[in-house]
């Protein structure tokens, strides 16, 4: 053997060293982004409307129970006087609001049933959210979170990406800038997390583009963690964007803290197919 020819043992050692170096580099990159390790076990919560959970339970009781019959998951609903949790499930109830002003009014009038331990603020570019709240979501998310915590309620903030389109926005979209970049440049996830216990990233429009889905989710999670290391960050998937398989591919590739599912009655079969895929993958 010539002096320039490596032995099999040395070649194996070199390959192992390269593999270890690559693993360490990947771990460092993950830590820099604030991401959890890639594992189904790290996805700890599931969120869906209470009505959709009830419908899923009628369609597939074992599947509904697997994902939602636990206090670590959440059932959302809009009725202040009535819990959205049905069928004896132990899932946590979440009262949804599109308006900070309405939330403050309901607290003043004691309209919120004690069954609720969580509230969610979902400001978007639509008539349900008052214009001043659309224009300055960071300020109103802070107000919402602080007011809810003062009343012993935990908070989910779910600001829409379309707030970048609002005329007169405090942080306006710049020419040529897409909404994902606007959302991150204006630090919307960090503003949400600063006064919240959970942030929902409305990533559903990127479902069929896993690379963009991952980018928006993980960059958002990093901003949220920088503002509040205790905050949980969930991406949103929707049955109106992509197939069940595409939804699952996007959700799994992001390695999220939890998953918010936007479903409809007409697409409940797709919801079941998505959850079947996720359960088979160990979620």
Rough outline: globular
Q: What amount of the residues lies in strands? A: 5-15%
Number of alpha- plus pi-helical segments: 11
Low-confidence stretches: 1-38
Share in helix: 40-55%
List SSEs in N-to-C order. Answer: HEHHEEHEHHEHHEHEHEH
- Report the strand count: 8
Oligomer state equals single chain
Question: Distance N terminus to C terminus?
Answer: 52 Å
Question: How would you write the strand order of the largest sheet?
Answer: 1-2-3-4-5-6-7-8
Structural class: alpha/beta
Major beta-sheet overview? 8 strands, parallel, barrel
Taking all residues together, what is the mean pLDDT? 88
Q: Tell me the radius of gyration.
A: 21 Å
Throw out a few tags for this protein.
45% helix; 283 residues; alpha/beta; single chain; 8 strands; disordered N terminus
Question: How would you describe the overall organization of this protein?
Answer:
There is one protein chain. This protein has helices at 8-33, 50-59, 61-68, 100-108, 131-135, 137-150, 179-185, 188-193, 210-227, 244-254, 268-280; strands spanning 45-49, 74-77, 92-97, 118-121, 154-157, 198-201, 232-238, 258-262. By secondary structure, it is α/β, with parallel strands linked by helices. Helix 10 (244-254) links the parallel strand 7 and strand 8 (258-262). It is globular. The protein starts with 7 loop residues before the first helix and ends with a helix.
